[in-house]
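Example 3.
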Amino acid sequence: MKFTIGRAAFTAQLIDVSRAIPSKATIPILTGIKITATKEGITLIGSDAEISIESFLSVQDDSLGLVIEETGSIVVTARIFNDIVRKLPTTKVTIETNEQFILTATSGEAIFSLNGTDGQSYPRLPEIESDRKINLPTVLFKELISQTIFSASNQESRPVLTGVHLMMNEGHITGVATDSHRLSRRQIPVEFTTDQANFEAITIPKKTLNELERIVQDDQMIEMIVTEQQVIFLIDNLTIYSRLLEGNYPDTDRLLPSSHTTEIVLNADQFLHAIDRASLMSHQGKNNVVQLDITDDNIDLSVQGSSLGSANESISAKSTTGEPIKISFNPDYMKDALRSFSGVDINVGFTSSVRPLLISALEKSETPNNELLQLLTPIRTH
Amino acid sequence: MKFTIGRAAFTAQLIDVSRAIPSKATIPILTGIKITATKEGITLIGSDAEISIESFLSVQDDSLGLVIEETGSIVVTARIFNDIVRKLPTTKVTIETNEQFILTATSGEAIFSLNGTDGQSYPRLPEIESDRKINLPTVLFKELISQTIFSASNQESRPVLTGVHLMMNEGHITGVATDSHRLSRRQIPVEFTTDQANFEAITIPKKTLNELERIVQDDQMIEMIVTEQQVIFLIDNLTIYSRLLEGNYPDTDRLLPSSHTTEIVLNADQFLHAIDRASLMSHQGKNNVVQLDITDDNIDLSVQGSSLGSANESISAKSTTGEPIKISFNPDYMKDALRSFSGVDINVGFTSSVRPLLISALEKSETPNNELLQLLTPIRTH
């Protein structure tokens, strides 16, 4: 294998692909990056067995300055290879391998030799057979991820809850995540045919969606293909492969309260900042709990009983309707939920001090099937 | 105690003083910040017993918006108090204490109560008796710190080597640091009378100089007072107290080679970048060693024998004089030394492959007593 490529473009692709590569792995070859040169271009692959990221650099893309002299493939340790390419002295780098699988990177007067492994020994990625590609609206899908992913569980005891559950319905996709203390639910409008969506629902691991959200730019297209055990995202020259989470996802719709005995309207950021301040004190105590006391438009927020001290604040709501209520909750969960509303006015609905509270935006979207809900289970303090 | 103050200015002073405060301490009260209100203003004190930082906020400084209603003093846990003040909702904060040493911070509708301790129980700082203040040239003194401090030892077996040694001579101060593998030496011109400098030499702990360098702005004045066991730095409204390191500092002048058998001239940054690249490979092996091979103006830099691979680079020197030489050294020490020359052309002098090499700037300063030297002991590889 021998090729020359522009160093900046090569470095950028190495960084994207390396997002999948673990620094330590039980399968040693997975700490490597696979580099394959064909007449058409260079393919880079990184994987941790759950997520694989593939990047294709085409000889036809003039911005890459890619010239292939000899085809072949090799695997080299990703971390050190990336560091070397990043720090080389000139704008071009020539990569060459020999029969002993030693890779040589040359740039200006600098020559690095790295011991590698035969590219044939790297695990193969599944072939993409499906033509059932769904075009996802990039900005809305990234919102769906960021507004739900924090509610996904970290507990491996129920693996299916560690992902975000996507449900396909005519004209929209609904994303749900829950750790059984809180639930996030976002609907976004998506056009697809029943032919394209050959499935009702899938659950995608949190890590996959985190990487997708970081890698994809707002102006890029995302195509999604779902196979029996995998989901594949196509973004320009990048392909992200991920396993799906198995198991029955709970029926979450029945958890959403249909009516409220108390409702308040206030600004999400104003509420967020007050909770954030109060949490400074609740973090000091054994129980990380903040209490709300709603009787009129002045809502009392308080943290009591910490050995270090206490916090009190009165927040002006825009409106308060229904019964007076006292309710306690985990302020960190509330902060996550409030942040997802990006500072708009919100409606918070309560049923009782032991039933979940429901947060939604005061103004509904003009687009149908475009809605965000955050559900939070209170903490019983008596 | 009761006072009201502008929150932004108060936060900035809390941050400076808190630099001295440990998050955990064997003497619990040292995790606190002492706040004292007198008619003249507010004094904040933080300390880890080795370094103490004091800030005075005067009622006469209109920018602080400081109004004192009641004098007194208290100690509260620094970390949480700082977080609270930083996150309060309005531009002003009122601090009040009661007889149970509970501090209340009020800002807008937010009220925080923090359990504190009597300010009388906080250790007292030494009184500054000396009028022997030396005015230090701020920018040059900060250079002296940053260009020597990395050579100070981390080994507590010889405590005196963990600091920077300052020697007072007519018209200049010389700072030296060494961990016995390398030595940094910077001279700066300073005007003082023998009356002001009531000492020949002192050794200041590394941590003190690190904090001083971070806190002091280039346009601020530094005054230094040396007492029997302490050094005190005065910077505007801040006072930094530090213990001095005890013990005899080694006579380092005799370590500096007086002549060289080989000399090269090259650009510090060009050399630095090549060493930095080569160190990517040397960090992979057991011995962190880079080798230089000097025969003509093309200097060969190489790393061999790592199980992962090798690195080679040829660097063009501006001139090479004297005997051919092969010499090996720790690239991380070399990088520290080269960085201190900020990209100017340097002269590197060699005596033999087992004797220290000496780095100095090619162009000497026009100001007398203004010189930087870096000494590096090679590694024997045979």
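The first strand of chain A starts at residue 2 and ends at 6. Residues 134-243 of chain A form a domain with the DNA Polymerase III; Chain A, domain 2 fold (CATH 3.10.150.10).
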